[in-house]
Amino acid sequence: MQENELYQWLAGYGIPVPDYKFFPLHGELISEPYPVALKIVSPGIVHKTEVGGVALNLDSPQELEKARERILANLHSHGIIPGEGDGWIVTRMYEGIELFFGVTWDPAFEKVILFGAGGTRVEIDRDICYIDSEAGEEEIKHAISRTRIGRIFTDGFRGKKYDIRLVVDLVQKLQRLEVSELDCNPVMLTENGLVVVDARARVGDLPLPGRPLKHIPALFQPVHTAIIGVSGHTEKVGYALAKNNAGDPDCCYVNPHLDTLFNKKVFARIEDLPEIDTAVLCIPPGALQDSIERLIPKKVKNIVIITAGFREAGRDERFLQELADRYGVNIIGPNCLGIYMKGKNLTFGPESMKNGEVNLFSQSGAIVAELMDKALYRNIGFENIVSTGNMADVDFGNLVYSYQGMHAINLYIEGVSNGKNLLRAIRQRKVPVRVFKAGRTEAAKKAAFSHTGNLAGNYELFTGLMESAGAQILRDINGLLYPYDLKKVLIVTNAGGAGTVMSDLISDKLLTLSGEQVDELGKVLPHHWSKNNPIDIIGDATHERYLKVLEIADRFGADAIYVLVTPQFMTDTEDISRIFVDHAFHTQLFPVLLGGVKMEAARCILRKAGVTYFEELTEAVSFL
Amino acid sequence: MQENELYQWLAGYGIPVPDYKFFPLHGELISEPYPVALKIVSPGIVHKTEVGGVALNLDSPQELEKARERILANLHSHGIIPGEGDGWIVTRMYEGIELFFGVTWDPAFEKVILFGAGGTRVEIDRDICYIDSEAGEEEIKHAISRTRIGRIFTDGFRGKKYDIRLVVDLVQKLQRLEVSELDCNPVMLTENGLVVVDARARVGDLPLPGRPLKHIPALFQPVHTAIIGVSGHTEKVGYALAKNNAGDPDCCYVNPHLDTLFNKKVFARIEDLPEIDTAVLCIPPGALQDSIERLIPKKVKNIVIITAGFREAGRDERFLQELADRYGVNIIGPNCLGIYMKGKNLTFGPESMKNGEVNLFSQSGAIVAELMDKALYRNIGFENIVSTGNMADVDFGNLVYSYQGMHAINLYIEGVSNGKNLLRAIRQRKVPVRVFKAGRTEAAKKAAFSHTGNLAGNYELFTGLMESAGAQILRDINGLLYPYDLKKVLIVTNAGGAGTVMSDLISDKLLTLSGEQVDELGKVLPHHWSKNNPIDIIGDATHERYLKVLEIADRFGADAIYVLVTPQFMTDTEDISRIFVDHAFHTQLFPVLLGGVKMEAARCILRKAGVTYFEELTEAVSFL
């Protein structure tokens, strides 16, 4: 599209474009008021500036005429001879702050709007944010606030005030624009308005949108289950799955070569099963389609495919999505560890998991296995676990959209194929959604691709869109193991240094102590305590001082109190750890036992009592 | 200084300034060639632009004259009436890339040069680096490379090439300039040169430089030691110090109220001691000066003051520096945990520390205590530990400058008063210097101040200067516990997800496998292994596959191999952990045992055998 056509087209959407006039190649150039800019318009010239096709700040008809000659000479020196259909655009000169707006089409997120600092800064600074085409006003503002240039809307700039609504309005117009690629640079912003001074677009057939977001609450309520492909060989996953469900009378086993397993009858054929809602399949890839079709008459709703060897091995798995759509069932996997739902452990991971509050939906089965094992050690319980595997059908969007519980949702993601649906689901969330995204660096993207066949995508685009939609991005994978949602916390510490380090990690979550609270604590503390949060109760603190301080701080209304214990000369670590076992507090307490040998017995006390504790500051804040 | 005077002064140092002419307030304004800029010059006007005192792009004498009237009207509207001594500067218009150069005076680092993106970007982007006034060419280039604008010197910009030597040259001139505050903005950069278009300076008496950097190698070689203020009461630090040195025949105890302690004679008075090189004092603050003076005749070289209650409690401690200077001794502390030197444990921290390779110099005694305890648990040995305390005399600069060993130096720093000396010491280092700096956020700065009385300073300035001088900035405090200096590593993993996450953490340290190496590994691995580093040996790997892969990878010349083990269905964790105990490898191996319950026995095997291992990915890379 030529510049004059583009201006017209943008103006049709209410987008502010310059006052401009089009002149034929050899026509007279006149314009008012001066100064003006002159630009060549020719289908063959995409980057006008680079071939000397633009002249700025022209003050008179004479200068316009001289500029035309100069531009033609420039073009000539680049081997460009404009044709008869070509011409000139003369526009007013605009001043203001240079902004950048763009539209791009991402394979996972479809249409995405870009906003940031414009002019040459696009290339040097990449001070850009990403905005989903379906983002509402608040989400747009949130994205803008994450750019450096965005500060001018809150702080002003050099005594001038700029209205963020101008930017939001243009973003919303770009959201409606039917285009897959557009660059507006610069867009000139003044206190009174903005105008798209220069733009380039590729208009053509829009790519097709992805699958609609399906609602699958049944996945979270398995009752009558079956494991297809149980095994008596301990080294087979069909054995582990059977073992993890040996105590469940509503779980049926299927294997044509077995009669009983774990004192349970084994069905020879799927046809022999009673009605079931959830089936787990650990059978050869070639047997999957047939088995799924034979499960349909059993009223199955959820099919979990443990079997590997599909996309990650370069083999086609699209038939699974087709089966899911044709029969209206939910397919998890293939290539996964299984699912755990409120005590029903349909995974081949550890048995005897504790029921609890953590929701973990993970694209990596090994990460699930690791976190389950760690949770066992630390007495952490799960509400639901889904090892998503290759996501031939059910993906993160479906899971977040359909979860109806009360606790935070933690996601481990390497790459998604339908990010748009995940954003839609996150926008409707009623609980916090936390995301750990692997594949930030090129090396990690390569590693992720080699083990899942997933493209990891652009990390900044992914995390930017997720954050603006309302998800929290975790920087530490350990954060996936905790269900807590904390806004304001207290730190009680016997080591000023550790309190300082922790403050750096969660500076925006520190509750500010009131004067009365400082006075109250002062009554039980040595005079040189910190009089501040972190509450530094000094290195010689024993369990008595810890207890007195915690009893007072318990009334301060924090969401949690981190209790840092370092092994100093007077520190009675075991007695301190018993505080968390023997005393009841209103506030959630998190002991953070820093050290090694001197902390072993204390940690043991907490582990035995089922108290959640941390061994590292970074782990303690990993979910914040 | 007026603009015309400033131009002259800068030009005197060989700094490129614009061609300019000065005109009296009502004199005729003429200039060649056009276009030009016109600026008011008046002692009362510091920020010309903000009062409309500048006109740009003037094309003729007529425009110059109109601009003068416009500027006078602008000034009038701001209530400014120029006096008879005031005048005008007319300069050529300069085009190019806008840069910022500055000089500032920091309380800890004294004179510091700033460089970055200029014009309005100084305020919006703060794309700035800090350069020490003593930095050499390579250090200057290193700093520049950490700005975004610095990319134009490597990548060019819009087809043009820019020469970093122009920037280095101007920085070096600013290093020589006798000024404590200077802003040059913008400095216009073209392919052919640069020119300081606008500048402001504060010239006056320069602040005095800090203490010279003294060399204190004797600190690291204590032989004949004394503990002044030993105690028989187990809750006193004088007891712990005595206990930690009970087995050392060269360590004398002093306490007027004791005869013997731990079967050792206790001297009643300092006068009774034999000659000693190192004394540790845990006596009341008021007794310090007298004791130090009585130690001088004993030829003491190092005095370690455990005693607290000085600057951190608001009490003057400058007499300690005066004593150190007067008698030529090294004073450590006050308010510290002591020192540990190659087996001599002059701390009141844990006894029976392992001798090893880690050097830890820390401003926080509690952090020392925590890391010593953790090291005991993990079988990590120390070469030297210095708990620096308040640094009344010996500071980080002295320690880094005087260490003559072979291993990396790890520093925990909250705030320094003589950063210039530390930079000088780091520049002369023969071993890696790693720094964890607490006090990045305002909350943490407040916490640090309340427990040490130290101002934490500007984090970006501190870390920028340190990094350019050659130190490595640690983001995770756990990194202080390891002596390793790794350039290229391999990752062997049974979990693709964990390998991906780790790749994100150390993407620039991954060794690239050659085609032959891939072929060699392929002979012992399933066909769907990753064929890449991380070497994903697939979830069903047992110890046999781990061993085969490690025996091959051992020949690849990596500085270390991280061996990630996650508890998957087939994982024989104990047998895998025995590989690290039973087999000898050329390459340093780091087992990373991820999980909980299933890893406990394996961790135990490694701990008992004294093998360094990790439980978290973040910890495993904390020192890289």
From TrEMBL, chains A, B:
Source organism, top-level taxon: Bacteria
Molecular function in Gene Ontology: ATP binding; ligase activity
The CoA-binding domain, residue ranges: 219-310
Entry keyword set: ATP-binding, Ligase, Nucleotide-binding
Gene3D superfamilies: ATP-grasp fold, A domain, ATP-grasp fold, B domain, NAD(P)-binding Rossmann-like Domain, Succinyl-CoA synthetase domains
The protein's name: CoA-binding domain-containing protein
Provenance organism: Chitinophaga parva
